[in-house]
Amino acid sequence: MFKQLETFCAVYETRNFSHAAEQLFISQPTVSTQIKQLEADLQTTLFTRNGRQEIVPTASGQLLYQQAQKLLTTWAATKTAVRSPRQLVKVPCRIGASHTTGSLILPALLAELSTASDRFDFQVTLANSAEILTAMSQHKLDFGLVEKPLVTDHLNRLAFGHDELVHAGDFNSPLWLLREPNSGVRHYTNAFLKARNIQPEQVMVIHSNQMIADLLARGTGQTIISRHVLASTIPVEALSSHYQRQFFLLTNHHPAAALRPVQATITQYLTTWSNG
User: Fold this and answer.
1) Beta bridge partners of 169
2) Distance between CA atoms of 123 and 271, rounded to whole angstroms?
3) Which backbone phi and psi does 79 adopt, to 5 degrees?
4) Which of the four pLDDT bands, split at 50, 70 and 90, describes residue 276?
5) Which of 43, 156, 188, 205 is the most buried (most CB within 10 A)?
């Protein structure tokens, strides 16, 4: 049953039987067989195909996905506990952060959490805000720190702190340094370019605020970026209040009981956090 649930989750996330098979290192017929067996056991249809032959989860499939993630997480923890009955089993704690929150907030937060590293196995992932949201929705992360104003019915959002975005760099440069399309900073950059009717002559897409800041420090290009990651020598243009943004902590509606002490520490730290 757990193998079938793992296969089901892979199909749900990839929306493709072949891709799910590649991800699980099994054959496509095996994937199809396991999905059919699961549908037979549950007496329901989990996926349909639309006119373009794309896999689409049914309402039953969407409900099963939410429950399957919880079951698989519990099963993984159970296997670890059974295999190591005489050892102290650390509780996995998966934290995801956007690149901005990863540089501004995460180091000090992890220092706060480090005192509990004897009881928790902390795993940290850096990605853009949209990717963090997806991972949270798929129960692949326990906590997410983002700055893009994302909305989801499946997660809780706690707003905290503020960040100031500025126009920085060589303002005469034809080169614009841009974050990837789904990042929080890119959302504001696109708004800035549209408001000023700017169509960049040259573009370089970089998946790192720090690398962009380093290029600006070398006198290369211009961009929209958080003031807090910039060296004091870089030319800066202050922007309107529309470029003042909040950070958000994403949590699941029903977090694992074992993670409540971590959530309490994170929430307490963030509610008092200030970038000065």
Assistant:
1) 222
2) 22
3) -60, -40
4) very low
5) 188
Structural contact between residues 201 and 174, judged by C-beta atoms closer than 8 angstroms: yes
Residue 271: predicted pLDDT:
86
Using alpha carbons, select from 185, 183, 210, 207 the residue that is nearest to residue 106.
210
Phi, psi of 162 (to 5 degrees): -140, 155
Do residues 249 and 143 lie in contact, with contact meaning Cβ atoms separated by under 8 Å? yes
Q: What is the pLDDT of residues 91-144, one digit of tens each?
A: 899 999 988 888 888 999 999 999 999 889 999 999 888 889 888 888 889 999
Whole-structure pTM value: 0.64
Burial pattern 110-130, b for ≥16 Cβ within 10 A else e, equals: eeebeeeeeebebeeebbbbb
Say if residues 244 and 163 touch (Cβ distance below 8 Å): yes
Task: Find how far residue 106's CA is from the centre of its chain.
Answer: 14
- Kindly state the tokens that stand for 77: 């923890």
Confidence of residue 3 (pLDDT cuts 50, 70, 90): confident
Contact of 9 with 21, CB cutoff 8 Å: no
pLDDT value at residue 137: 82
CB 87, CB 81: distance < 8 Å: no
How many Cα atoms within 13 Å fall on the side-chain side of residue 177? 26
| CA 265 remoteness from chain centre | 20
Give the relative orientation of helices 106-113 and 260-271 as an angle to the nearest 10 degrees: 140
| 52 band by pLDDT with thresholds 50, 70 and 90 | low
Q: How many helices (H) and strands (E) does the chain have?
A: 10, 11
Helix (H) or strand (E) holding 224: strand 222-226
